[in-house]
Amino acid sequence: MKKISKTLYLLGLSSLIILSCEDKEAEEKLVVESFSITLVDKITTGDGSQSQPELVRFINSEKGVIVNSKQNTVDFINITPSGISMSGQSVQITNEADAECSSIDVSVDQSILAVVVSRGACKRGELYLINTSSLQKYGPYELGYNPDAVDIAVDNEFVVVVNEFDYEDGVDGGCDDLGFPGVSIYNIGSGLDKGVLVKDMKISHTGSNGNLAEPEGVKIAPNGTTVYMTLQESNEVGWFSIANPPEVLQNRMAFTNPEHEPDGIWVNSDGTLICTAGEYDGTIGVHTLDAAGKPATQKFIKMAEDLPSNWDWDDKRKGIEPEEVVIAETGGKVFVLSTLQDAGGVVVYDITDPANPKFDSGAITEMNDYTTQTDGESKGEPEGLAYLKGYVLVSNTEDPSVALLKASWACLLYTSDAADEGLGVD
User: Fold this and answer.
1) Which of 182, 189, 275, 395 is placed for a possible disulfide with 144 were both Cys, Cβ 3.0 to 4.6 Å?
2) Which strands make up the sheet holding 196-202, listed edge to edge?
3) pTM of this prediction?
């Protein structure tokens, strides 16, 4: 009888673990000293000829999703605190031969999945919207040329997609006079099947370095109005208001590091800080924003000074290649995480004091931990990055695989909850 009671108790404790991870109030009370990221699990997403997980996102604490550019599908992942597995569930986005699903985003309330389809430099891309509960697909909605990153506003009113437009591909395809870099803004407030194009914005300028401004990453601020984007080739950050988007992008600022040329971008919860992933210079940008949302100060974390010596990277242009970047805030601490394509891993920095960032931790995410081998080389090329309640998902495009990682305090809230209630195992 005692064994049965003990088993039932453990089952109850398992439920408590899951429930307490959803306890926002408890999360806010948590006191954190460091992130201390560690690997929980990693799985292959299939054969390399059939699977290429470009990006990964959490749907919720039990389900994740990857965008598979080989099959033009979104494939779903089962998640537990101790592991991940492919669910076998997918949604076919398009069967068009010259199309490629390149990017995804999940709304803050976890109800909407946005998927971007690129059709090259000479054809406009497409946006699809999926109800995460029913997996019903809506669209397509027309985008610009070579659409890249996508973001959904916190109130689910708008979806913003940045259209990179590859000029060299345009020249090769004979359509360089047709296409242009830009931004597509859709109002989806009336329903996923009733999206309305608000603006097909153009980006027509060149940077002070003489390069065409091509947008790579995009993030809508928590106010639901200000949109920030990285302009990689021109080495700039651009921004505008959804409430009054211009015909042609006006607001932009050059990065003080001349070779930053970032990819991913993230905005913190109170709209006072943005972080950028310097794909070319191997740094993470930490930039404060003034009261009007304009970039005020710039700081660049040189990761070459901190990365483990047994990781595969070089202190040279595109020798580290940070891709996506995420800001995580909990327990009075602010952390920035970034995937490193060349090194095959993810890193975490404490940026609670933006002027004095500190290296926290890192982990190899690809299937083969080359650091355990003599003269091992990184081959996984991680790109996608997502964070939820102390847990981290990383997609490795070339393995192909997905890794689940966690902070040292992830889901430990239940321990203190249980202690407060005087619970224990007999």
Assistant:
1) 182
2) 147-152, 158-163, 182-187, 196-202
3) 0.91
